[in-house]
Design goal:
The chain has one domain. About 90% of the residues lie in helices and about 0% in strands. It contains two helices and no strands. The chain has helices at about 1-10, 15-45. It is elongated and about 55 Å long.
Length: about 50
């Protein structure tokens, strides 16, 4: 996995890396929101 990332870093330019990082941060952020949302919904269903 790390070797794979190293190869990607060598291929991409700095700008590309920034775009990829932004994408991964956004994805992680979305996953956090989804996790919170599902927890909230489960709690809401249990109370109902």
């Amino acid at each position: 996995m790390f070797l794979f990332l190293n190869i990607i870093l060598k291929i991409f330019t700095k700008q590309d890396i920034e775009v990829v990082e932004m994408f991964f941060h956004k994805k992680a952020f979305m996953n956090k929101i989804i996790l919170r949302g599902t927890k909230f919904i489960k709690r809401f269903i249990r109370e109902d």
